[in-house]
Amino acid sequence: IAQQSMKGKSSKTPGQTSSSALLDPTTLQQLSILLDPPAPIFGNNWRALADELGLCFQDICYIETKQNPTQMVLDMYATNTPTASRDQIHRSLLDIDRLDAAELLQPSVNSNDAT
User: Fold this and answer.
1) What is the phi-psi region of residue 8: left when phi exceeds 0, alpha when psi lies from -120 to 50, beta otherwise?
2) Whether the Cβ atoms of residue 96 and residue 34 lie closer than 8 Å to each other
3) Whether the predicted pLDDT of 3 surpasses 70
4) Which of 5, 13, 19, 88 is the most buried (most CB within 10 A)?
């Protein structure tokens, strides 16, 4: 009764957490606009984010076949990482020198609820 496990290496329960639990739809859409296009010069697009967030090579190859790779990266990260957080996404974007994308997460990182 198991489905094809082409969605990555993790076998955690589906729907455990998703990118929508970490990011609002507008922010997710804006990140996709910034990170989905190929980045031949710097390579700091969704692939770099996936690598920085700890996704494996097989996951990245699978995501390459999808229409919205940034959302897939964030969904897989949120599902496969028990400690997934908006702050970690922010730090990862800074680590790959995507200050433009990291800026989208800035208001939440500077908010009153320090974790």
Assistant:
1) left
2) no
3) no
4) 19
